[in-house]
Design a protein that fits this description.
The model has no long low-confidence stretch (mean pLDDT 95). The chain has 5 helices and 12 strands. The chain is 27% helix and 34% strand.
Amino acid sequence: MNKASRKHIIELLDKGIRLDGRKPDQYREVSVEFDVTRSAEGSARVKIGDTEMITGVKMELFEPYPDTPDQGSLMVGAEFSPMASPEFESGPPGIESIELSRVIDRGIRESQAIDLKKLCLKKGELCWMVVIDMAPINAAGNLFDAGALSAIAAIKDTKLPGIKDDQVDYDNKTEDPLPVKKVALSVTVCKIGKHLIIDPLPEEEKVIDARLTVATDESGELCALQKGGEEPLSVEEIDKMVELGIEKGKELRAKLES
């Protein structure tokens, strides 16, 4: 994006508005839909404005790792299709999809949202692995928050499949939910010039100096932080971004619970 576009965005922010008329700390309309596909053990569709993300959870059985013989495992992946954005290319995961997966994985993992010990069936022999797959349907900005919200919604929607002869019986889904300990949600706060915004549009994302993804639990306790962007952040800026992330996390939680 050229300097003229960046200047225009900053001039609008100086007046307290954005390209689409929102305030700097205002989300677009957010909606959450559960159980959107039968091919997964749990699923959710999240829309934030024109951004749409579908996430599914598949449960697999595996032999636990030697250093955690009594724990299940978590795996998060994202597939960016050219149908979601002309900027996405077919082929192996790119830097953007890998970063999205890692940021969302960190928020879930560091918050200990899932009790991995309760996913152990036979110590050292057999455990459940939670595989979370995200797929943007329309990439219109802020995939980080859409992905994080859809991932935790899909986790809440998940029911464990049956087991027969130590093999997954996908045809017989139980009513047993995942052992969820915390509902961690992430809010990504972005810095453009001297301004802090949330839920950026694609045009705004192209001029972001830095961003901070703030993951919190139901009590508002900070669970994880992940910085992105090339510019450094001062301690004061980080404090403001964390405060804003905690505050806006409450709004997203209300959407999840409704």
